[in-house]
Amino acid sequence: KEHISEVEQFSADSTEALEAFRIKYLGKKGILNKYFAEFKNIPKEDKKAFGQTINQLKTAATEKVNSLKSNLEQSVKASSKYGDLSRPGEPMELGARHPISIVKNQIIDIFSRIGFNVSEGPEIEDDWHNFTALNLPEHHPARDMQDTFFVQTDPDILLRTHTSSVQVRYMENNKPPIRTISPGRVYRNEAISARSHCFFHQVEGLYIDKNVSFADLKQTLQFFTQELFGKSRIRLRPSYFPFTEPSAEVDVYWGLETETDYRITKGTGWLEIMGTGMVDPNVLDNCGIDSKVYSGFAFGMGIDRIALLLHQIPDIRLLSENDVRFLEQFRSSL
Ligand code: PHE
């Protein structure tokens, strides 16, 4: 009986202690076997009570060993430095590229195939690189085309309104021939709606060399629209930019090319996709390139609107809200 209460109170904090306990009671030379061997010497009238007691002891000891064993196993798992190795694995969630990055990479890829490199510059710019060098002197009315965020303490510092500023920096630091595209985020003080935001993304391009003509411009953009949209019908509409002369707006014909072209369901017709023109000689001279020797063309497009178009996204704000239900839809894209 004393043994039974000892067994009930026993607890073990290691497998070694538990094993010693098991051997002590249930081992070959253990307490239980000793009593079982004693059994034949017990007087007949006591046999029944004695037998019951040792059976009780045996059950108690066996149950104790089993329950302590499983407790110890649990705590070993929980305290293992690798955590519980027996838990089922959690699948690794793969992220998705942002649609802006997808389209930006496609554009970079297309232009890199015809010799353009990628240049980048600061988002916080000075007046010279964003405006003045681009033939937009102070008080020039065309500055109103791009509502600007200024840094409060210094009217010379602003958030760039276009990545043309990067092209100014590139021309200041590199000699022609120049073939570069400048992707990046730009800021304009505009009301936020489904169609426009106070920040968006651009890719601007610049090509400067001897004898660059408007025909080169047109052919380059034709190649680009064919590669990106699978559509080569473009239209150049006369336009105005202070930094190019002549200037044009580029429309791509976004419609059913053939009766079997069922990819595009809505938004057919001519869609404006970028601004372009021959770089104004003043801009070349401002940036240290001799306009009597060199000429070139520039172009600029908004990545966000192209992403809306290519992926049939109805609202530009989805691009900056970080809603994973939206973002994970691009898992299968490039
Ligand atoms: N910088 C112009 C804009 O942001 C785009 C442009 C670039 C137009 C180059 C012509 C030439 O609107």
Characterise the protein shown here.
With 334 residues, the chain is of the alpha+beta class. Helices cover 38% and strands 22% of the residues. The protein contains eleven helices and ten strands. The protein has helices at 2-9, 15-26, 31-38, 44-79, 99-112, 127-130, 164-173, 214-229, 281-286, 303-311, 324-327; strands at 117-118, 124-126, 150-151, 154-159, 178-187, 199-209, 234-241, 244-254, 269-279, 295-302. A seven-stranded mixed sheet has the order 1-5-6-10-9-8-7, sandwiched between helices. Strands 2-4-3 form a three-stranded antiparallel sheet. A hairpin with a 2-residue loop joins β7 and β8. α5 (99-112) crosses α10 (303-311). The chain is rod-shaped. The model has no long low-confidence stretch (mean pLDDT 89). The structure holds phenylalanine. Phenylalanine (PHE) binds next to β9 and β10. Belongs to the class-II aminoacyl-tRNA synthetase family. Phe-tRNA synthetase alpha subunit type 1 subfamily. This is Phenylalanine--tRNA ligase alpha subunit. One of its GO terms (molecular function) is phenylalanine-tRNA ligase activity. Keywords: Aminoacyl-tRNA synthetase, ATP-binding, Cytoplasm, Ligase, Magnesium, Metal-binding, Nucleotide-binding, Protein biosynthesis. Tetramer of two alpha and two beta subunits.
